[in-house]
Amino acid sequence: MTIKLYDLCTADRALRFSPACWRTRMALAHKGLEVETVATLFTEIKSIEGGGQTTVPVIADGDTVVRDSFAIALYLEDTYPDLPSLFGGEGGQKMAHFIDRWANAVVDKQLVRFCLLDIYNRLDEKDQPYFRTTREKRFGCALEEVPDHSPDRLDAFRESLLPMRLALRDQAFLGGDAPLYADYSIFGSFQWARMVSDFVLLEEDDPVAQWFDRCLDLYDGLGRSSKV
């Protein structure tokens, strides 16, 4: 049975940019499950699967509807235990939960300062008023005042990745020799920025940049081949 994934898009419906949706896309690919992606605007989320949804990703697996990328990962692991594990055991699940929260609270919070206006400029005109209103309320200022590409901001972002950088000097992925869901949590964040912005976040010889490059090639180049 094909799983339906509601995936956030820009005005160009082929461009899918949500970090959370990318986490789910990679998890589904890891499991080797057949997927149908449904391009979804911000203003269309409320109508998904009969209504009541507020965020994406959302998957529909037969009659089962699941929202939230980490909840989806747990569902896939429990529902398809004979397929490759996303966590590699209970300890890996707990580690992935920490990494997922770190990605949301630390990595995404910094990345948005580099690419927020790029996102807005790519959105469908029906989504732009919603995006401007909600983000200006969140940041307490005009959308145009949020971006900060200063060297100090960039240096602080790169420095915040030091623990990850040190780990990746000794292993190919956060999961070890092969990726696990912890990798997809952070990959989604960097893929988000890559899909909407040309701003260079990492130096080429950074172990984090090299890890991201390896992730882009996973699953027949799923991340690399997607439209930017």
UniProtKB/TrEMBL annotation:
One GO BP annotation here? L-phenylalanine catabolic process
Q: Which Pfam families match?
A: GST_C_7 (PF22041), GST_N_2 (PF13409)
The protein depicted here goes by the name Glutathione S-transferase
Q: What's a single GO MF annotation on this record? A: glutathione transferase activity
Key word Protein biosynthesis present in the record? no
Superkingdom is Bacteria
Q: Which organism is it from?
A: Cohaesibacter marisflavi
All residue ranges annotated as the GST N-terminal domain in the record: 8-84
Q: Which UniProt keywords apply?
A: Transferase
